[in-house]
Amino acid sequence: MRQLLFLLLSTLFFSCQPSSRQDHTSIMSFQLDTVQASDVNPVCEVKYIPLELTDNSLIGSIDKILYRNKHFYIFDKSANMGILIFNENGKFIKVLNRTGEGPGEYIAPIDFDVDAEGNIYIADNARQKIIKYDANDFRQYEEIDLKCYFMEFAIIDKEYIVLSEIYDQGKIRDKLAIYSKKDKKIQSLLKPALTEMDELRIPRHSSHYLYRSGDKVYFYQRFTPEIYNVNDKNIDLTANLFSDKYFKEEELKALEGNSRAFMLDMKHIKDINAFYETANGYFCSSSTFPLPQFFWISKTEGNIHSLNLTEENKLLGNLTISGVANNYLVCSSNYSEETVNTALKIDGLSENTKQMFGNWSEDSNPILILFQLSYQ
């Protein structure tokens, strides 16, 4: 009887814990070092979307782009300290800017997310809070008190919020954790893989490590091959992107505080700085010096391709992929005379697109570039 009771209690206990266990046959595994470069022109379709400039929509910097609910949400930490919202054609809709120290206001916004209903969430690290703003009325808000410092977050559903890189006393305590709005508790999902070095003293080569593709959220465990999918209150290992070029822990330990040596290193992968899913596959970018590497994992073929995007003039020299909109990958471009000259030399531009580039100026907002890949 005691043994039966123990088994029942054990089953109940473990069923209530966050889990990362899964069927290992579902994990994608690739060796990046042996992927052959392709001669195929990687980009098959491009859209250029100018972001409308009004008295309320001047963009100082694009720090993050999300596409949700047929809208583009632009995080601007400089000019607006908030979120600018545009429709699919780039027409300005409205801006969320609630800086201050009062109720419903934020002091130091570090990240944002948007749920399936269009509600906007902004993380204020200074106050250790996430503030939820109603999609239809930003005056309606809810403050979520987390009582911890973290780098990024993502809304998983109406109950769970995933937090990345929770740090305490100057060191990363959890790489991933889940917060329950119902229980008001934080549970660890993933501990740091490297424990003998101080990751906060190594420069980041990616603006974020949580990557949203529609309703799906992926996370890259830095300096490892591991890409995770966050699902409900669990994580699943989605992909192992193996390489001999990842730093060893002792190498990173020697680079702590030496930003210049880390930045100029030409032998190692410094980061996986993009991992996005479309209906046809997964796009991945690795940060290497002097140029990044790009990969495409096909869902239909089940294999991986190397992409030569560095010479693709349709992207106007922009190699930082910032998100995904339906089946399009998204990047952005700021104005320069050189960029306009490059754009006007692209074959097959419509007259409207040529006119758009001709009217682009240093006083304009950035342009979003949406592109699809030739691979299926």
Plain-language structure description:
The structure is a single chain. This protein is mainly β and 376 residues long. The chain has a domain at 23-52 and 203-376. Helix content is 12%, strand content 39%. The protein is built from five helices and 25 strands. The protein has helices spanning 2-15, 249-255, 259-264, 337-344, 351-359, and strands spanning 28-31, 43-50, 64-68, 71-76, 82-87, 92-96, 109-114, 120-124, 129-133, 141-145, 152-155, 160-168, 171-180, 185-190, 210-213, 216-220, 226-231, 234-242, 271-277, 281-287, 293-298, 304-307, 323-325, 328-333, 367-373. It has a five-stranded mixed sheet with strand order 1-18-17-16-15, with no helix packed on it. A four-stranded antiparallel sheet has the order 2-25-24-23, with no helix packed on it. A four-stranded antiparallel sheet has the order 3-4-5-6, with no helix packed on it. Strand 5 and strand 6 form a beta hairpin. The longest helix is centred in the N-terminal third of the chain and has 14 residues, at 2-15. It starts with a helix and ends with a strand. This is 6-bladed beta-propeller. It comes from Bacteroides intestinalis. InterPro entries: 6-blade_b-propeller_TolB-like (IPR011042).
Task: Tally the helices.
Answer: 5
How far is the first residue's CA from the last residue's CA?
Answer: 57 Å
Silhouette: globular
**What is the overall pLDDT average?**
92
User: How large is the radius of gyration?
Assistant: 22 Å
User: What structural category do the secondary elements indicate?
Assistant: mainly beta
Instruction: Give the strand order of the largest sheet, numbering strands 1, 2, ... along the chain.
Output: 1-18-17-16-15
